[in-house]
Amino acid sequence: MEILSEGVLLGLGQPLLDMVLKVDSDFLTIYELKSNNGIHATMDLHNQLYKVVSNHPDLKLIPGGTVYNTLKVVQWILGQPKRTVFIGSIGNDENGKTLINCCDITGINSHFQIISNEPTGICLVLLTNDDIVCK
Q: How far apart are CA 116 and CA 58, in angstroms?
């Protein structure tokens, strides 16, 4: 494959810190969640769930968001680091710092505007054995 210049593709978007944890169905029941379902969580209602998940030793942290995920695929196809560039905003918080550190391994040249009065976006992904569904 031809060597491409760095930064040949730019993506602007909302980065998310994906927090992925494998759980059992009892865990879902405790927090009144359904398998194969998505919700818009709020810290008022789901603060305890966030605390449990974010402190779990098996938690996987992955940079995400629609644009970032797309750039990860493009970066993987190209197989040459720093050919894609991402620009987005994060909060001045621990999740933002973690997101920055997680981005280093993707090969994407990532740049973030840090906003002091807003939290970094997160996405909790709870996987159960029931979640393996092909449609």
A: 29
Which carries the bigger pLDDT value, residue 80 or residue 45?
A: 80
Residue 116, phi then psi, degrees to nearest 5: -70, -25
Contact, 124 vs 31, CB < 8 A?
no
Tell me the per-residue pLDDT of 74-108, one tens digit each, with 9 for 90 and over: 999 999 999 999 999 999 999 999 999 999 889 99
Interatomic CA distance for residues 49 and 7, integer angstroms: 38
Q: Which range has the worst mean pLDDT, 41-55, 60-74, 94-108?
A: 41-55
Helix (H) or strand (E) holding 10: strand 9-12
* DSSP conformation letters of 78-112: H-STTSEEEEEEEESSHHHHHHHHHHTTT--EEEE
- Residue 26 backbone phi and psi in degrees, to 5: -65, -35
* Distance in angstroms (rounded) separating the CA atoms of residues 83 and 66: 18
pTM: 0.85
- Residue 122 pairs with which residues in a beta bridge? 17
